[in-house]
Fold this protein.
Amino acid sequence: MKDNRHKRKFKDFVIATSMNLDSPKILEFGVSERGMSTELFIELCEKKNGKLISVDINNNTKKFKSKNWHFINSRDDNFNEIEKVIKGETFDIIYLDTIHKANHVEKILFYYYEKLKEGGYFFIDDTSWLPYTKKREKNNFSIEVNNSETFDKLLQIHNVNHESFDLDFSFVGTGVARITKLSTKKLVMSKKIPTRKYSPLNFMRKIYLNLFKRNA
């Protein structure tokens, strides 16, 4: 039986990236009802002698049994509570799958980025708005807008921090972003990208292209 798109996205883009790590230390925000990501992270940690810490507001303590797994019953932005457990640790992988709103994603990214090892990966799930647009299978106004704003926010953050991390995306299923940390330099707050999309020059370009199309 084929994996669904969500599992395929996770295995091909997240787990495949992580297979080159020895004794990986992973910090996961969000344990879903099915716990698919947690299950696959635990499998990875048991195979590679790693450690997984999962954080969620729902008490999932009994969901899995593994000596490689520790669960924190907390919001992802309850920094004091989480610090009691992680105690200044740094991680090879940080995975965010909680509140899919641009400002929240930015808050979590900026706080925990410093806890990501140089060369480590920060994954942010649900960054594609395409399945939620009109006439698509998940047609949903609010999720479309939230995912689109998150996608744009990540581009804005990367634009002013492009020397500090690489950014790429998978658009399989509901999408996922991958940040690869290149240096220990602190992140700079995001700014709107000074695009020429709405400039007079581009307006004139469109007029010219339309005239050319008509006369072709």
Q: What stands out?
A: The chain has a mean pLDDT of 93. DSSP finds six helices and seven strands in the chain. The radius of gyration is 20 Å. Helices lie at 5-18, 36-48, 79-86, 102-112, 141-160, 200-215.
